[in-house]
């Protein structure tokens, strides 16, 4: 059995596989593009801030947070200017995911044939819903993208011949990681893996990398400048406690781990209800086979990364992926952050680290007939992830085909806007999960301030307070909201002697204040 240690295939073939990966990444998000109007308020905030970049007391922070930068709004604004599409916000986010996949492909292609690297990267191009949601939700994916860009530049630096080129690429790699950490402090749980990767980089027997390591640290410092200026609040190690394990383990084992790996599907139809879909028949068989290969290859990759004779480039990548898995599990089980099924997002690094972790397995396959083995090992994983992610779209997919919902097309928002404009309404108040979505879809023609949750942009409540004609908006879509039905509010307004009028506009109930 011979190792695959020859140079990567030609540039043309590599480019073809890269283009196919980008197309796969975008096509897999077609339901999200078609239902651009069904975004929630957290996503809409990114689009709104992209219109107000540079405003406010903390322009380096995403509105209402202390742990996310403005990389996503900047990219959203650039995409909107270049591609003035109604789905530009989702496109800007998926573009980040496509670049992530390309960087992962580029990293693996340094060591593997193009097709093998493409199949491994496809395990992230299509993915179960927790990662897929981050792909089109605009506010987190760019942090991961920058981290993978750092790994790609570091791999290029490790293979560079000229010292000056090696140093320059190392500085850029460190800067990308630093900017990724600024973009979202979620990246903190990935940094230990990057450190292990760099240790494997330095200790590679062929040549000393100390100069490049110094360049990486300098670059990381430069990329961290926005984070320091923004005074972002990173999680503390004091959050870790054994006492959290009792609460977190049932949630981890019965819901979040199966959800993030696609062995359980919690698909939504409204964005808030997440009933479990039962896996049965062929889908159940595919899940068992896919997850069996996923776990088996991950364990084998970890063991091979410690075995003598493993090539250093594959070894350091596996160390990085293994650290992502380990730190992610510790962080989930021993902190108080996991609360519900949506906490599966904290386990997303398990998926991101998989192609890195299995690189020693792929590197050990024989060149002759190796493509057959790679296909047998990876295609079931890709198929399982693809089915889990596609079915995870819930109401955006019908009998396997994308469908556009009234909310996804923004019909509900247009009906409500027309009714409010006919009444001369200038500003309104609604539940948090309704307010920013409507304001974004209406392009601020009427602004809606949140009556619950975080007030991310103070000018909206001020506009409501000073508006000549105002309204309260009620939607039955948000369970438990104060703005679920107007009845209790009408009682209060009558008691206070406040004149008002009630009307219905599509799925919304409106109280017009006079």
Describe what is shown at a glance.
With 514 residues, the protein is an alpha/beta fold. It has 22 helices and nine strands.
Textual characterization of the structure:
This protein has 514 residues and is an alpha/beta fold. 58% of the residues lie in helices and 7% in strands. The chain has 22 helices and 9 strands. The protein has a 5-stranded mixed beta sheet with strand order 6-5-7-9-8. Strands 1-2 form a two-stranded antiparallel sheet. A hairpin with a 2-residue loop joins strand 8 and strand 9. Helix 4 (71-82) crosses helix 5. The longest helix is centred in the middle third of the chain and has 24 residues, at 281-304. The radius of gyration is 24 Å and the shape is globular. It starts with 10 loop residues before the first helix and ends with a strand.
Main sheet overview = 5 strands, mixed
| DSSP helix fraction | 55-70%
Strand arrangement within the widest β-sheet reads: 6-5-7-9-8
Estimate the global geometry from the Cα principal axes.
globular
Number of helices: 22
> Approximately how much beta-strand content do the residues carry?
5-15%
- The CA-CA distance between the termini, in Å, is 82 Å
What is the radius of gyration computed over CA atoms, rounded to a whole number of angstroms?
Answer: 24 Å
Average pLDDT reading? 91
Low-pLDDT runs? 1-9
Secondary-structure content class: alpha/beta
Number of strands: 9
Topology diagram in text:
Layout: H1 11-28, H2 30-34, H3 41-51, H4 71-82, H5 88-109, H6 114-125, H7 129-136, H8 141-159, H9 163-183, H10 191-202, H11 210-223, H12 225-230, H13 245-261, E1 265-266, E2 276-277, H14 281-304, H15 312-334, H16 349-357, H17 359-363, H18 370-391, E3 397-398, E4 401-402, H19 411-422, E5 427-430, H20 432-441, E6 447-450, H21 459-466, E7 470-475, H22 487-495, E8 500-505, E9 508-513
Parallel strand pairs: 5-6, 5-7
Antiparallel strand pairs: 1-2, 3-4, 7-9, 8-9
């Amino acid at each position: 059995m011979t190792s695959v240690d020859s140079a990567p295939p030609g540039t043309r073939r590599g480019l073809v596989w890269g283009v196919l990966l980008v197309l796969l990444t975008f096509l897999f998000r077609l339901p999200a593009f078609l239902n651009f109007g069904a975004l929630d308020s957290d996503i809409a905030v990114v689009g709104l801030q992209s219109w107000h970049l540079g405003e406010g007391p903390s322009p380096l922070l995403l509105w209402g947070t202390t742990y996310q930068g403005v990389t996503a709004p900047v990219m959203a604004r650039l995409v909107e200017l270049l591609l003035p599409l109604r789905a530009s916000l989702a496109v800007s986010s998926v573009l980040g995911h496509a670049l992530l996949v390309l960087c992962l492909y580029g990293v693996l292609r340094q060591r593997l044939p193009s097709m093998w690297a493409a199949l491994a990267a496809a395990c992230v191009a299509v993915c179960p819903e927790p990662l897929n949601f981050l792909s089109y939700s605009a506010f987190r994916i760019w942090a991961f993208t920058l981290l993978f860009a750092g790994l790609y530049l570091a791999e290029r630096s490790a293979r560079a011949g000229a010292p000056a080129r090696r140093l320059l690429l190392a500085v850029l790699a460190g800067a990308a990681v630093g900017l990724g950490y600024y973009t979202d402090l979620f990246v903190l749980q990935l940094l230990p893996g990057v450190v292990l990767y760099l240790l494997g980089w330095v200790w590679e027997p062929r040549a000393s990398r100390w100069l490049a390591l110094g360049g990486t640290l300098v670059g990381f410092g430069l990329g961290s400048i926005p984070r320091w200026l923004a005074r972002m609040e990173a999680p503390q190690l004091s959050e870790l406690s054994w006492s959290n394990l009792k609460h977190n383990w049932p949630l981890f084992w019965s819901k979040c781990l199966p959800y993030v790996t696609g062995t359980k599907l919690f698909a939504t139809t409204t964005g808030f209800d997440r009933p479990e879909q039962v896996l049965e028949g062929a889908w159940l068989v595919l899940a068992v086979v896919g997850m069996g290969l996923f776990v088996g290859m991950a364990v084998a990759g970890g063991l091979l990364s410690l075995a003598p004779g493993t090539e250093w480039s594959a070894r350091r990548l596996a160390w990085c992926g293994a650290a992502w898995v380990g730190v992610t599990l510790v962080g989930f089980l021993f902190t108080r952050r996991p609360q519900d099924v949506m906490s599966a997002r904290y386990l997303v690094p398990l998926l991101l680290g998989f192609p890195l972790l299995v690189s020693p397995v792929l590197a050990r396959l024989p060149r002759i007939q190796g493509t057959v083995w790679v296909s047998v090992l990876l295609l079931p994983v890709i198929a399982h992830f693809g089915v889990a992610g596609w079915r995870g779209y819930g109401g955006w997919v019908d009998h396997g085909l994308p469908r556009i919902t009234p909310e996804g097309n923004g019909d509900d928002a247009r009906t409500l806007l027309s009714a409010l404009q006919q009444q001369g309404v200038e500003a309104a108040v609604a539940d948090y999960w309704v307010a920013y979505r409507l304001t974004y879809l209406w392009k601020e023609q009427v602004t809606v301030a949140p009556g619950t949750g975080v007030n991310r942009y103070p000018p909206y409540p001020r506009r409501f307070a000073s508006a000549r004609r105002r309204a309260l908006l009620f939607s039955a879509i948000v369970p438990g909201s104060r703005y679920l039905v107007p009845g209790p509010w009408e009682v209060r307004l009558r008691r206070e002697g406040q004149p008002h009028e009630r009307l219905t506009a599509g799925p919304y109930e409106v109280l017009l204040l006079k």
